[in-house]
Amino acid sequence: MIQDTFLYVALLIALAAVIVWVEKSSSSKFFKYVPGIVLLYLSAALLRTIGVFGESEAMSSANSTIRNVLLPAMIVLMLINCDLRKLKHLGRKMILGYTVAVFSIVAGFAITYLIFQAWYAPDTWKAFGALAGSWTGGSANMVAIQGILDVPENIFGYALIMDTVNYSVWVMFLFWLVPFASKFNKWAGAKTEYLDQLQIDLKQENNGTVGFKELLGLLGLSLLISAVSRYIGGVLPEVGAVINGTTWTVTIAAIVGLILAVTPVAKVPGTMDMANVMLYVIIALIASNADFSQLLQAPIYIISGFFILFIHLAVMLLLAKLFKIDLFTLGIASLANIGGMASAPMLAGYYNRALIPVGVIMALLGSLIGTYAGLVVAQILSML
Questions:
Q1: Where are the annotated coiled coils located (predicted)?
Q2: Reported pTM
Q3: Which has the least CB within 10 A, 226, 245, 343, 377?
Q4: In 10 A of CB 182, how many CB atoms?
């Protein structure tokens, strides 16, 4: 049993490094169905469950301190790529599709929780809030809400399982629909001429090679902003059940990130690489406190995930018919929420490589609002 704090943290970071190395180096289809970040969570949680990690005040304190420092820094780096001025290229239908997708997911969580509430473990509303952050943004939003709401690690594990199983099925379903796009568009009465203009307006940018000065600069800048955000957030008042010091800290960091997105800092390469390093470390630390002894409750959560997606699908189909929206717009709007940066650009590229920037911008929009959409879901569920 490990009791040494440094060994504990070092082992988690090494575990994350090995999993990422194998995932990026392997051509196996395994990682298409079990993303590295989920495998990391399962591995770290398993180490806790079988007793490799002990329990001590020093280890708990180190875990909390590192997570609280890295979380705002990660959010800053994630949002540096989110230039809101690019949203003008998306057009009314794309924005409408994305907005309705967000509201349908929020409604899906509320309705599902209301129906299955009696079968859930305590504090499930917190885990659903975190999952809603992921399904309207991405993994970074999910981790942010876990920190804000202090979601119990065991319940957070159920949310991650839903985020893997239900998400994987949904992604495969959306890719399966692509060959039927013309038939769907005919059924919806949708026209796709605006997509041709989008391909002209949006161009992918290559920010250059990531080097030592870029990585060190981004690390120093993000940690400094994190420190200042934490200080300011700590002196601001708490409001209600979800607005606390961590909420203020995350909000301040997000605002700074959006400001930096319209400055020359946004052109510095390596922001997503550094942000992902922090994300994996945070996930490993969260998972190392989890215990899978209650995993038998997972089936009701997976069923709940499919029920949420069914509500989302029904609303999106109704939207397509009423406003004559094409399948590409619906699919990207949906996956920019539920899949985020990991899959929305891939789906866009599956339609046409020139449309990849559409998926990128839509996913960045999700990373901007995901945390707050998840907190809205948590607030609603806490009152049910």
A1: none
A2: 0.67
A3: 245
A4: 11
Neighbours of 381 (CB within 10 A): 22
Sequence-distant (6+) residues with CB within 8 A of 71 are 143, 144, 147, 226, 246, 249, 250, 278, 282
Taking residue 277's Cβ as centre, other Cβ atoms within 10 Å add up to: 19
Q: Report the alpha-carbon distance of residue 260 to residue 251 in Å, rounded.
A: 14
Check if the beta carbon of residue 290 is closer than 8 Å to that of residue 14.
no
Q: Cα(257)–Cα(225) distance, rounded to whole angstroms? A: 9
Instruction: Identify the DSSP state of 237.
Output: P
Residue 220 structure tokens: 């120093």
* Strand, coil or helix: 53: strand
Structure tokens at 116: 């299955």
Report the chain (384 residues): mean pLDDT per 10 consecutive residues: 87 93 85 75 83 80 87 84 66 84 94 92 90 86 85 82 80 82 88 64 60 92 94 82 71 86 87 86 81 67 93 94 89 85 70 67 78 90 88
306 neighbors 168 (Cβ within 8 angstroms): no
Which residues does 292 contact at the CB level (< 8 Å), separation at least 6?
Answer: 45, 46, 49, 154, 157
- Give the dihedral of Cα atoms 76, 285, 293, 120; nearest 10 deg: -20
Cα angle, residue 315 at apex, residues 313 and 320 outer, rounded to 5°:
90
**Residues with Cβ within 8 Å of residue 44, at least 6 apart in sequence:** 12, 15, 283, 284, 287, 288, 290
Cα 88 from Cα 74, distance rounded (Å): 26
Q: What are the counts of helices (DSSP H) followed by strands (DSSP E) for the chain?
A: 17, 0
What H or E segment, with its residue span, contains residue 210? Answer: none
Q: For residue 112, what pLDDT is reported?
A: 95
The tokens of 143 are what?
């981790």
